[in-house]
Amino acid sequence: MQNLMQSEDVVDIDDRVDRLQGSDYLSFDLAGELYGVDIQTVEEIRVWEPPTLLPRSPAFILGVINLRGMIVPVMDLRVRFNTKKADYHRETVVLILRASEAANHKVMGVVVDAVSDVVDQGEGQIMPPIGDSQVIAYVSGLLNVDQRVMSLVNVDELLRIEHWI
């Protein structure tokens, strides 16, 4: 998947939505809402393990984990999306996500409440995101899944360090 937003570029929302067509998504639950990420950005799914704290990091960075010799930061998506704080338990998972080549292959763990399923877009029409919140900057589109609406997370934008400040 190409980098959808470059700092100097303005990408039309319709162009971002067009790039999402035909993809499969890993769906996950976060604070009772359904989200999805392009399955190609998922490196692995890990069970919850407390990360090593990282001094002076933003509140949404819980620390780092060792992933086969690579140090990977772990982001609490509930804190990042400004929802209520979660308790970490056996069902809590960490999605290891990799940004696209254009975004320099950044890797990060993202804590979510639970992984749901792999969703094939099928005949579903991806709609542009609506609303105005701090989460909308990380949402590329919306997709109807059964009786729910799944927000499609733009992994490249989510992992951009410029958004950490």
Question: Can you walk through the features of this model?
Answer:
The chain is mainly beta and 165 residues long. It has a single domain, classed as OB fold (Dihydrolipoamide Acetyltransferase, E2P) (Beta Barrel). Helix content is 10%, strand content 39%. It contains three helices and ten strands. The strands form two sheets. Strands 8-1-2-10-9 form a five-stranded mixed beta sheet. The protein has a five-stranded mixed beta sheet with strand order 3-6-7-5-4. A hairpin with an 8-residue loop joins strand 6 and strand 7. The two termini are 25 Å apart. 30% of the residues are buried.
Total number of strands: 10
- Count the helices. How many? 3
- Work out the radius of gyration: 15 Å
Compute the separation of the termini in Å.
25 Å
CATH superfamily caption:
CheA-289, Domain 4
CATH architecture call: Beta Barrel
Structural class: mainly beta
Strand-helix topology:
Elements: H1 13-20, E1 24-30, E2 33-38, E3 42-47, E4 61-67, E5 70-76, H2 77-80, E6 93-98, E7 107-112, E8 114-120, E9 139-145, E10 148-153, H3 155-158
Parallel strand pairs: 2-10, 5-7
Antiparallel strand pairs: 1-2, 1-8, 3-6, 4-5, 6-7, 9-10
Main location: cytoplasm
Pfam families: CheW
Keywords: Cytoplasm
Short structural description:
Helix content is 10%, strand content 39%. It is mainly beta and 165 residues long. Residues 22-164 form the CheW-like domain.
